[in-house]
Structures are given as structure tokens and as C-alpha cells.
């Protein structure tokens, strides 16, 4: 319970920072848009879209409305991509990087198993 409280506290601070950046950028865009080039405006709009997605994801995580199917899909995708990367570059990677990647893969596997187990328990 205490760990989840700390996690939500960090999420809230991150949420607040992203929201402040979003609002500040929006205000600057409104004030100075005529001074910016079209490319710069497009970059800012893309950044704002990414921030909106982050805000929505953090909001869902805090409220525990996270889409489990998307989470499992992303976890599997990251696991498989990393496995392919390891097969291709395992000989060239320094030992400490290889250990970090293997550790992450181990935790992804555990997380995936836990998510699948939770989904089975809910049904």
C-alpha cells in the first residue's frame, strides 16, 4: 500500500510538470505563433500531442483505469524486439549493458506473467 502511495505521488508530480509545460507551451504558441516558422509550429504541435497522451496515460494510471490489453501488447512487443536485438548484437554488447538488458527482460517476463494471471483471475 505504501509503495502504491509513493508511486501515485511520483505520478502526480510528473503529471503536474507535464501539465505546466503543456499550458506554458500553449500560451507561448498563442502569443508568438506569427514569429515562428511553419516547421517549428509543427514540432510544437507534435510535442503537445505527445504531452496530451502522457497526461491521459498518467491520469488513467492514477485512477487505475489503465488499458490492460494495450499494456500486455506493448510488453510483448518490447520483449520480442529486445530478444531480436539481443540475438543480433549479443557478441558486440559490453557486459554491463548485456546484464541490464537481460535483467529488464526478466522483469518484463515476470510482469507479463502477472498481468496474464490477473486477467485469468478476473474472468
Automatic annotation (TrEMBL):
<protein>
    <submittedName>
        <fullName>Uncharacterized protein</fullName>
    </submittedName>
</protein>
Amino acid at each position: 500500500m505504501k509503495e502504491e502511495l509513493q508511486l501515485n505521488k511520483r505520478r502526480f508530480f510528473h503529471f503536474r510538470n507535464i501539465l505546466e509545460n503543456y499550458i506554458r507551451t500553449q500560451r507561448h504558441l498563442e502569443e508568438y505563433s506569427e514569429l515562428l516558422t511553419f516547421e517549428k509550429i509543427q514540432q510544437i504541435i507534435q510535442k503537445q500531442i505527445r504531452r496530451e497522451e502522457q497526461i491521459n496515460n498518467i491520469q488513467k494510471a492514477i485512477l487505475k483505469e489503465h488499458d490492460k490489453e494495450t499494456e500486455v501488447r506493448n510488453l510483448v512487443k518490447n520483449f520480442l524486439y529486445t530478444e531480436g536485438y539481443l540475438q543480433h548484437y549479443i557478441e558486440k554488447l559490453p557486459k554491463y549493458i548485456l546484464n541490464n538488458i537481460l535483467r529488464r527482460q526478466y522483469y518484463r517476463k515476470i510482469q507479463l506473467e502477472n498481468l496474464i494471471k490477473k486477467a485469468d483471475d478476473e474472468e
